[in-house]
């Protein structure tokens, strides 16, 4: 319940999922992380996050899914903890999380929930932090979390935490997200890649080349020219993903890609074909289907 728009005590926000249009692993860094070039995209599939500030200290997290951790094991809980620590006020936080985004699917559900908690608390607390400071707090929670403060189509650099808006925005594109009902652990997927090349940062010219390639993919709808460096390693461990991809192509999809390190796939193509595919038993017997749209920056 919000008392007044200027001084709310509680805020409800959608926490949108993401896909990665492009995910390139440039090498392994001395700190153990991998240097990335990625293009994130917010999609309409979303969790619902309700956040309230309280006078009494403590963090309470209510979850619609009893299988997920409701304490420090949940990134939304840790986001509240990190915010309170940075803010320094002896207050408490209550979070209610209604989950719709599958976990361990490469759709960024946990990271998006955490970012929504940070955005909501910053508003409830009277904006003590700039977006840049909030992004620093977000980066301490996970590599993907800063992106979810901004949304839309955005470029991720470094370990993914350095976020810039993309010069190419993909507006209102229909995407079929296909979830095979199992999880892929991200840290393990990075080990499967066995990146040996020493990480080097991309130059502005390298970035330009990639953005030109991406612009061509979007304007000419050449969805098979996207890139995901996890795809070969993850597909070889989970052959059912290849079967799903095959069925999506049969149904008329023009490009089928892993989101992040998986397990979810996303398909692009004529929207009628995607709508038909989402209802076809050939797919639904193997996976859950979510017909979504791209969402702009918020
Ligand atoms: O940053 P985050 O906690 O989301 O990362 C989870 C794990 O994924 C890390 O512990 C690391 O093993 C791996 N990772 C990586 N390179 C990245 C991002 C994540 O190796 N750029």
Describe this structure in words.
The protein has 298 residues and is α+β, with helices and mostly antiparallel strands. Helix content is 34%, strand content 28%. The chain contains ten helices and eleven strands. The protein has helices at 75-87, 109-124, 131-141, 147-150, 186-193, 204-219, 231-237, 239-250, 271-279, 281-284, and strands at residues 10-28, 34-54, 58-63, 92-98, 153-157, 162-165, 174-179, 227-228, 255-258, 265-268, 288-293. The strands form two sheets. Strands 1, 2, 3, 4, 5, 6 and 8 form a seven-stranded mixed sheet that branches. A four-stranded antiparallel sheet has the order 9-10-7-11, with helices on one face. Strand 9 (255-258) and strand 10 form a beta hairpin. It is globular, with a radius of gyration of 19 Å. The two termini are 22 Å apart.
Total E-strand runs:
11
* Percent strand: 25-35%
> Pairing-aware structural class of the strands and helices?
alpha+beta
* Overall pLDDT score: 95
Total helical elements: 10
Whole-angstrom Rg: 19 Å
Sheet of most strands: 7 strands, mixed
Helix percentage: 25-40%
Question: What bound compounds does this protein have?
Answer: cytidine-5'-monophosphate
Order of helices and strands: EEEHEHHHEEEHHEHHEEHHE
Flag low-confidence runs: none
User: Judging from the principal axes of the Cα atoms, what is the shape?
Assistant: globular
Termini separation (Å)?
A: 22 Å
């Amino acid at each position: 319940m919000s008392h007044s728009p200027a001084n709310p005590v509680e805020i409800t926000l959608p926490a949108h999922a993401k896909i990665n249009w492009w995910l390139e692993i440039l090498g392994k860094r001395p700190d153990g992380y991998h240097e990335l070039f990625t293009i994130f995209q917010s999609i309409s599939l979303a969790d619902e996050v309700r956040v309230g500030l309280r006078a009494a200290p403590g963090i309470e997290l209510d979850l619609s899914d009893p299988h997920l951790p409701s304490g420090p094991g949940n990134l939304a809980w840790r986001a509240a903890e990190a915010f309170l620590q940075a803010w320094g006020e002896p207050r408490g936080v209550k979070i209610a999380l209604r989950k719709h985004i599958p976990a361990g699917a490469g759709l960024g559900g946990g990271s998006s929930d955490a970012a929504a908690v940070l955005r909501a608390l910053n508003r409830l607390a009277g904006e003590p932090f700039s977006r840049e400071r909030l992004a620093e707090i977000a980066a301490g929670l996970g590599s993907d979390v800063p992106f979810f403060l901004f949304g839309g189509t955005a470029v991720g650099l470094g370990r993914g935490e350095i976020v810039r808006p993309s010069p190419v925005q993909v507006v209102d594109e229909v995407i079929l997200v296909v979830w095979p009902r199992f999880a892929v652990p991200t840290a393990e997927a990075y080990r499967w890649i066995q990146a040996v090349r020493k990480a080097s940062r991309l130059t502005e010219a390298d970035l330009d080349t990639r953005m030109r390639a991406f612009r061509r993919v979007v304007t000419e709808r050449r969805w098979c020219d996207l890139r995901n460096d996890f795809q070969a390693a993850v597909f070889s461990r989970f052959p059912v993903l290849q079967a799903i991809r095959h069925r999506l192509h049969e149904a008329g999809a023009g490009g089928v890609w892993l989101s992040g390190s998986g397990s979810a796939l996303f398909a692009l193509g004529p929207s009628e074909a995607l709508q038909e595919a989402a209802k076809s038993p050939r797919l639904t017997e193997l996976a859950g289907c979510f017909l979504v749209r791209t969402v702009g920056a918020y």
